[in-house]
Design a protein that fits this description.
The complex is a heterodimer of chains A (about 260) and B (about 220).
Chain A: H1 3-8, H2 10-15, H3 20-32, H4 34-54, H5 61-85, H6 89-93, H7 102-111, H8 122-134, E1 140-141, H9 147-152, E2 170-180, E3 183-192, E4 195-202, E5 212-216, E6 219-226, E7 229-236, E8 239-245, H10 249-258
Antiparallel strand pairs in A: 1-2, 2-3, 3-4, 4-8, 5-6, 6-7, 7-8
Helix pairs in contact in A: 3-4, 7-8
Chain B: H1 2-19, H2 23-34, H3 37-53, H4 64-80, H5 84-91, H6 105-111, H7 117-132, H8 136-147, H9 152-159, H10 163-183, H11 185-188, H12 193-199, H13 204-213
């Protein structure tokens, strides 16, 4: 065994990560080789010095408290969701829509989906609606819309950019990677005068099946009626852009039709 | 419903008990990755919030600390890294090859078992400086292996690459650190200038054969 080989793998030797046979061979070599012994002593000493000078950092006192506060918020939403789930089935259909929060309104809509829907991609559509109502946390924040493209690189098989809306009141609030059915998707979250809009970008021919087709402002637009709600879909280069939100139907159609999705 | 909220409460308690002991580790790694106390706090809080949300996805019996660190590493890569160029370095094979024997024997001796607090402190400062100059990937590697003393398997899970890759990335990171220390060996006062000039450009092998040639 050469000194060169021993020194190349001295780090792994000190880490105890060599296979047992090599470990023994290394030990044997080191016993007989003062030069390598010196290297070994150095390797160990530097490890120790590194640990001493870089480690031993303590988290600031308030950090845990600050984090617990966030947990409280999560617990509160969970408790709320649980109490909704715990209600008897029939209540969901008679939920007072006018007073319910936006998320609840959509849950009501989903539950109202007739079971006999002959629609193949119904599961996917339901996913679209669920993903909106769950309002999952964003990975890319509103302050950094330029991060969106980079964030989705390697995650989705197609490039993702935040859609641009003509409406000046439309605000980008965040984005995250997600799945619609089994398809990798980009979820882009927007806010329009306090109402949420979710844009899901993914590839799925199924979602186009049985979709209604219309034209709004010269743009081709597809849509599905789902239990009183409407999901609007645009298609560009084999990619689907599904818009869903707590918005009135004409507003949603208008927004979806005028959005710049592929540019 | 009371039973549901009790369930939430129990889950919360369990998570707190499991996560609290790792707060210092998370913060210390976060601080070294972000190089900023403010960003480090945000990163840790983010990590814990995410872990709490997805707590049911954690496989009981597996390494909780490694799981937290994996979440943190992902958050860091996704959110806190500004330049895409750096990201390539972080995820792909690193650009600059590191030769063997970057450390001269004199520097090596100077760094082995330093005598006295003053010398230790000086070397500590120098290691800090050298460490902060490392790439994101190298800092992560040194942090996880040398400071947190995690196994290659754990690191491979956290960083998301095969064990063999951990080995070579770690080797490279340590060599980079040593190379930087070598450059500052003169300032460190552990070798004098002439020694440095004499020793540093000569690879260990050549140095040995020269020594052997001496009568």
């Amino acid at each position: 065994m050469s000194c060169r080989l021993v020194r190349r793998h001295l780090g792994a030797f000190v880490d105890g990560e060599l296979d047992p046979a090599s470990q023994i061979e290394f030990e044997r070599h080191l016993e007989a080789c003062p030069g390598c012994q010196e290297n070994l002593a150095f390797e160990r000493s530097l490890r120790q010095l590194t640990r001493e000078s870089i480690g031993d950092v303590h988290a600031p006192e308030h950090l845990w408290g600050r984090t617990l506060h966030r947990f409280d918020e999560i617990d509160a939403t969970r408790a709320e969701r649980n109490s909704i789930d715990a209600r008897p089935m029939h209540l969901r259909h008679t939920w007072p829509i006018a007073t319910a929060a936006a998320a609840v309104l959509i849950i009501g809509g989903v539950m109202g989906l007739p079971e006999s829907t002959p629609y193949q991609g119904a599961g996917m559509l339901q996913d679209v609606i669920n993903l909106h109502s769950q309002a999952l946390p964003s990975d890319v924040q509103a302050e950094a819309p330029q991060e969106v493209v980079r964030y989705f690189q390697g995650k989705t098989p197609f490039p993702v950019r935040p859609a641009q809306f003509e409406e000046p009141g439309m605000k980008f609030v965040g984005a995250r990677y997600i799945r619609v059915g089994t398809q990798p998707a980009a979820a882009l979250y927007y806010n329009h005068g306090g109402r949420r809009l979710t844009l899901l970008v993914f590839q799925s021919p199924e979602i186009m099946r049985n979709a209604h087709r219309t034209h709004v402002g010269g743009r081709e637009l597809y849509y599905h009626n789902v239990g009183g709600n409407v999901v609007t879909i645009r298609q560009h280069g084999g990619v689907n852009y599904a818009f869903f939100g707590d918005l009135d139907r004409p507003v949603l159609f208008q927004l979806a039709a005028n959005a710049r999705v592929a540019y | 419903m009371p039973s549901k909220s009790k369930q939430v409460e129990a889950q919360r308690q369990l998570f707190e008990t499991e996560a609290r002991p790792h707060l210092d580790t998370l913060y210390s790694v976060a601080l070294r990755l972000t190089r900023s106390p403010v960003d480090a706090e945000d990163l840790v809080q983010d990590t814990l919030v995410r872990a709490y949300r997805f707590y049911e996805r954690f496989e009981a019996g597996t390494n909780f600390k490694a799981w937290l660190l994996r979440i943190q590493m992902n958050s860091f890569v996704n959110r806190y890294r500004r330049k895409s160029r750096e990201r390539e370095v972080f995820e792909g094979p690193m650009a600059t090859p590191v030769g063997e024997g970057v450390m001269s024997r004199a520097t090596m001796r100077g760094l082995t078992d330093p005598v006295g607090d003053a010398e230790r402190r000086l070397i500590g400062q120098e290691i800090n400086r050298a460490f902060d100059e490392l790439s994101d990937d190298a800092r992560a590697m040194v942090m996880l292996a040398d400071v947190e003393e995690l196994s290659y398997k754990e690191i491979s899970d956290i960083v998301g690459c095969p064990i063999g890759t951990v080995m070579s990335r770690l080797h490279r990171a340590r060599k980079q650190l040593q190379g930087s220390l070598q450059k500052h060996a003169v300032q460190l006062g552990i070798i004098d200038e002439e020694d440095g000039e004499f020793e540093s450009p000569i690879p260990l092998e050549a140095f040995r054969s020269r020594k052997a040639a001496k009568p």
